[in-house]
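Following the same procedure, sequence and fold were stored together, as reproduced here.

>
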Amino acid sequence: MTYVNNMKDHDIQRIRRFNRAVTAALGVLDSSFLGRGRPLGVARVIHAIGHYGSDIAVIRTQLGLDKAVLSRMLKGLEAEGLITFRTDSQDARKRHADLTDKGRAEFDAYDALSDHHAADLLEGHPHTGHLLQAMDLIATAFGRDKVTIQEMDPRATDSLYCLQSYYDELEARFERGFDVSLSRDPEAANMMPPLGAFYVAMSDGLPLGCCGLKGVGTDVAEIKRLWVSPSARGLGLAQRLLAECETAANDLGIKTLRLDTNSALPEAEQLYRKTGWTQIERFNDDPYPDLFFEKAVSVG
């Protein structure tokens, strides 16, 4: 027990060391973040307005700030001439904070300095790939409760990023590699209404996973291209993506879902068996899968 407790203490110290390093590297305690004359908190409010829009309620939710604290920060930005307030034209209960031209210039300056700071960090590290993977893992751990599932055009940039990541992983994990041109790659139209749907898991503007519902206009459809970033695995995103596709299938009047996978992906097989899929005989001539499953769509 003492050994276990010592290991836990060591892990806690590693986390606290990490926290101190990040605090120092990002200038969290500086009164002039990135040399622009404001602390980090106020700079984040400027970024949030420029990035998420002017709705004050949305800004508060995105930043997780107390209403009174955000109000003080916004009044300070108004005094600097960086924002103006207005009431929503459709809902008088909503208030907006719009960046002025001066405020937009500050947003652009912070953006450029932050990009430069990030580039310096990457250029100064010998293993940028490992560094980015670690950052992705940490960011996902901190933001796991804010991951959203969004319906998206499978040809959109975020969708294509997920699909290419999926293909790259199959290339690395399959003994014979993977060539999408040899696979039964679904047409985009089959994964869009009124035939199907395509979903992407998003975290603070970055895609973490995807899943497609491929329909052909009958009451049978397929689940295609289920992929979750390694940094987000184990958080239930694959089940959430599948659930969205099943809901869409029900809405489209689809009664049966099918999917295929490869035994080189044992975690996928385990997921399907755990979530109510039944193994069936081969139903297509795709050269890559060797396992085939089916599931009745829940009505209601």
The first helix runs from residue 2 to 26. Residues 146-296 form a domain with the Aminopeptidase fold (CATH 3.40.630.30). The chain has two domains: 2-144, 146-296.
